[in-house]
Design a protein that fits this description.
This protein is elongated. Strand 2 and strand 3 form a beta hairpin. The chain folds into three domains: about 60 residues, no CATH class; about 70 residues, no CATH class; about 120 residues, Ribonuclease H-like superfamily/Ribonuclease H (Nucleotidyltransferase, domain 5, 2-Layer Sandwich), CATH 3.30.420.10. The protein has a four-stranded mixed beta sheet with strand order 3-2-1-4, sandwiched between helices. With about 290 residues, the chain is α+β, with helices and mostly antiparallel strands. It has twelve helices and four strands; from the N terminus they run αααααααααβββαβαα. About 40% of the residues lie in helices and about 10% in strands. The chain starts with 8 loop residues before the first helix and ends with a helix. Pfam families: HTH_38, rve. Keywords: DNA recombination. This is IS30 family transposase. One of its GO terms (molecular function) is transposase activity.
């Protein structure tokens, strides 16, 4: 299996800076932990004809173009009108890839394109405007997580450990398959100052959202607010809760003792296991100003 990684825009800017400092090919290669042949080939391929020097912009744009041409052709390339429609919904209307895919499904009655294919197009640079400045992340910034890097599988959780009574793998099938009401996902959305937050509950079957403001994103105020929300929902409509693994939910045992509702925690770094809440929180962040 090949472990080769393509040069990033940051790598390419480092090459330009090093060349300006009269660094040798081998010095640049050591700095980037790459083979000297890789650096030499990169510089030769991407010399600007007008300026007569290495251009990170040209290199990155050439890479994106080559990547869009390689492998299996996407629906974007096969159907220009479909591409323009998706581009309008994504860039102008600020719809997420999930929303676009579902809208096309509702309009046509068939699965025109998957949201994964749309994400692939975004990351391949198919939606980027030409002539982006160095370091510009392009259309990726339109995504709800703003194109910020996610933690990799080796990331160590630093927020502390909380008592886990049940895992998501023990959750009832009715909750997993969304066949009945009353199975909720819980999370928090941080405020502008990082102090207050929104506590959110989303029913897995109906996607019905309830949100309430807590004075601080810590266990005591979040538990108090969550208790008030659950009491309004009523015990008859409470079967399970699947929260985030944050410390703000560390007092979940108190809620179980008082209301008899079990909590089922997802695996670490697995936001897709709470897809309803993650997507709804994205909509809240997009359409509700922080404060």
């Amino acid at each position: 299996m090949s472990h080769y990684q393509h040069l990033t825009i940051n790598d390419r800017e480092m090459i330009l800076e090093s060349l300006a400092q009269s660094k040798t090919i081998r010095e640049i290669a050591r700095k980037l932990k790459r083979a000297p042949s890789t650096i030499s080939r990169e510089i030769k391929r991407h010399m600007s004809k007008n300026a007569g020097r290495y251009s990170p912009d040209k290199a990155q744009n050439d890479y994106k173009f080559s990547k869009s041409k390689c492998g299996r052709k996407t629906r974007f390339i096969e159907d220009p009108s479909l591409f323009q429609r998706i581009k309008h919904l994504f860039l102008d209307c600020q719809w997420s890839p999930e929303e676009i895919s579902q809208r096309l499904l509702l309009e046509t009655g068939e699965k025109i394109i998957s949201f994964i294919t749309i994400y692939r197009g975004v990351y391949a640079g198919l939606f980027d405007k030409p002539g982006l400045s160095q370091g510009n992340r392009g259309a990726i910034r339109k995504l709800r997580h703003r194109g910020k890097p996610r933690h990799n599988k080796d990331y160590v959780e630093k927020r502390g450990k909380i008592p886990i009574t049940n895992t998501i793998h023990e959750r009832p099938e009715a909750a997993n398959k969304r066949t009945e009401f009353g199975h909720w996902e819980a999370d928090t959305v941080a405020g502008k100052t990082g102090q207050s937050c929104l506590v959110t509950l989303v029913d897995r079957k109906s996607r019905f959202l309830i949100a309430s403001k807590a004075t601080k994103k810590s266990s005591k105020p979040v538990t108090t607010e969550l208790m008030a929300m659950l009491e309004k929902i009523g015990k008859s409509n409470l079967k399970t809760i699947t929260p985030d693994r944050g410390k703000e939910f560390s007092k979940h045992v108190q809620l179980t003792d008082l209301l008899g509702i079990p909590f089922y925690f997802p695996d670490p770094h697995a936001p897709w296991q709470r897809g309803s809440n993650e997507n709804t929180n994205g909509l809240l962040r997009e359409y509700t100003p922080k404060g």
